[in-house]
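Quick one: examine the sequence and fold tokens given here and explain what the tokens say about the fold. Here goes:
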Amino acid sequence: MFDTMTMTKVLGAVCGTLLVFLLGSWVAEEIYHAGGHGDHEQAYVIPVEGGDAIEEEIDEGPPFADVYALASAADGEGLWRACSACHALEQGENGVGPYLYGVVGRDVAASEGFNYSGALIAVNDVWTPEELNAFLEGPKAYAPGTAMSYNGMRKIEDRANLIAYLDSLDD
């Protein structure tokens, strides 16, 4: 019943059908998507009162000074572990990053023997708690072009605790 010629016809019919569907899909894609939808103005616009003045309210949370006043150096010591991969706490002992002993209140680029990126030097002069907070929140956003590859610390409480810990080291 099924010989070689019948099998060849069935296979040809299946391939031909798939080819028709493939070409039909390609034509439909060209008709509906390549027509430049979005390149022209909308035909009918429904006016909405206050539609152009959309404002997003961003909750920035409490001011850093208030959070820093309640910060715990003991909690910051636990957060230090992430920093210790690149930084040291001993004065003069640089790692991948500069040493952080006495960093709070210290001039930027004051670590002897460490080559700072120009982007960081251009942004700030002294590491105040507020400046450290902004830097730790997102180093790349704070100083675009900085060599520090850390993504940042999201919670303001964690940043305040870490800064309080670093500030407590040098009395």
The chain has a mean pLDDT of 85. The two ends are 97 Å apart (CA to CA). The helical segments are 4-33, 64-69, 73-83, 118-123, 129-137, 139-142, 156-168. The first helix runs from residue 4 to 33.
